[in-house]
Amino acid sequence: MSQPDAGEINPETLGIQALAMNQRTHVSMKLGTRVGEDGMLLRRRALSFSYSDKEGLRRLALVVAADIPASESFTIHEGLSVMGGERRTVMWRKSDCHLPSCCDTIVQAILKQRACRLVLLTPAYFEHGFYPTWLPTHSGVTPSLHGIAIQKPMVVSGWDLEVRQPKPIRRLAPAGTVLFLKLPDRVTPDQIKAWITATWMQCMGDDEQSRRDGFGLAVLGVWDGKPQVIA
């Protein structure tokens, strides 16, 4: 997330080829007749954890981090279990590794410029579509929004099992969206460091439940705080 010099980036070496996706279409069935309900189609698109060397994919795993200390009432158990709506078999393993923290180079750049980029790793819900009304605030640091780089929205819905009807359609800011933030001049470096720690790899968005569901996972990058005109 640091700022590279011009000519240093080779796009072919960035990241992985793609996350393997699996898309399926389902239909609602009438009880007792095995006949499909007219117009009741549902398309589901999810990550596929199958692996093949020939497809140029990397073997990936799902990492879950809990900010609740282990206790008698809350314990993460290792071993086989099931996961997801199709109850696929998974193997859970406990790890002492920690999620990557914000590197010192980025921290020092944010302290110097008192500005940064906030990059979404997962889609985020904003009440006004592309414009957030909620920004991460911590240790007395309240950032201000000065720019957004965003593509077309991701439209999502689903089926509510409790009330047995479709969930409302929502438009999400897609992963890769960048918010350009400035930090107040009056705050101290220690306050900014605390804000960076509290914001890094945490979820943001206008709806608390969406944040709990993992929408709006974000990291920070450098920005000099100077808007640039794009020709």
Describe the structure.
There is one protein chain. 11% of the residues lie in helices and 30% in strands. The chain has two domains: 11-92, no CATH class; 104-222, Immunoglobulin-like. A hairpin with a 4-residue loop joins strand 3 (79-83) and strand 4. It has 231 residues and is mostly beta strands. The model has no long low-confidence stretch (mean pLDDT 84). The protein has three helices and 14 strands. It is globular. It has a five-stranded antiparallel beta sheet with strand order 7-12-5-14-13. Strands 6-11-8 form a three-stranded antiparallel beta sheet, with no helix packed on it. The two termini are 24 Å apart. It has helices at residues 104-113, 189-199, 208-212, and strands at residues 21-29, 36-47, 79-83, 88-92, 115-120, 124-125, 144-149, 154-156, 159-160, 165-166, 170-173, 178-182, 202-203, 217-222.
What share of residues are in beta strands?
Answer: 25-35%
Backbone CA Rg: 21 Å
CATH topology of the largest domain: Immunoglobulin-like
Q: Major beta sheet, specifics?
A: 5 strands, antiparallel
Q: Report the CATH architecture of the largest domain.
A: Sandwich
How much is the average pLDDT?
84
Lateral strand order in the biggest sheet = 7-12-5-14-13
Estimate percent helicity.
10-25%
Number of domains: 2
Q: What is the overall shape?
A: globular
Q: State the CATH class of the largest domain.
A: Mainly Beta
Order of helices and strands: EEEEHEEEEEEEEHEHE
Measured between the Cα atoms of the first and last residue, the distance is 24 Å
Number of beta-strand segments: 14
Low-confidence stretches: none
Number of helices: 3
